[in-house]
Amino acid sequence: MPLGLSILALAIASEIAATLALKASVGMTRPGYTVFAGLGYLAAFSLLALCLRTVPVGTAYGIWAGVGTVGVALAAWWIFDEWPTAPTWLGLVLVAAGVVLLVVSPSSNPTELP
């Protein structure tokens, strides 16, 4: 996997962890989870910015949004017992299919910034 996509994977993992911590903070009333969420989002956006040095922004953001959405939904199902409905499952499958298309499509304009 190219370095840019590896960094993007770390950014997505940070964003998913931060979002789950935000849920666990119960409206930011639990300081430990609230701080973890803030640091997770800071890490996520910092890593996304680094990733954008080599991955086109449309591709990176599409993958970020799609994998983040599916990841949070699946993790919330597992951790918080938030059961997806049938239409939600269909939507998650379609989002995942879109991410696969973004990953396998050749980049039209890869960048390498100084």
How do the helices and strands line up, and which of them pair or pack?
Blueprint (H helix, E strand, L loop, with lengths): L2 H22 L6 H21 L5 H24 L5 H19 L10
Helix pairs in contact: 1-2, 1-3, 3-4
Brief write-up:
75% of the residues lie in helices and 0% in strands.
**C-alpha geometry:** flat
**Rg, alpha carbons:** 15 Å
* Unreliable stretches: none
Briefly note the structural class of the backbone: mainly alpha
The H-and-E topology, N to C, reads as HHHH
The major β-sheet equals: none
- Give the number of domains: 1
Strand tally: 0
Individual helix count: 4
Strand content: under 5%
The rounded distance between the terminal residues' Cα atoms is 21 Å
Mean of residue pLDDT values: 92
Helical fraction equals over 70%
Written overview of the protein:
The protein has 114 residues and is mainly alpha-helical. The chain has one domain (3-104). Helix content is 75%, strand content 0%. It has helices at residues 3-24, 31-51, 57-80, 86-104. α1 (3-24) runs antiparallel to α2 (31-51). The longest helix has 24 residues, at 57-80. The two termini are 21 Å apart. The model has no long low-confidence stretch (mean pLDDT 92).
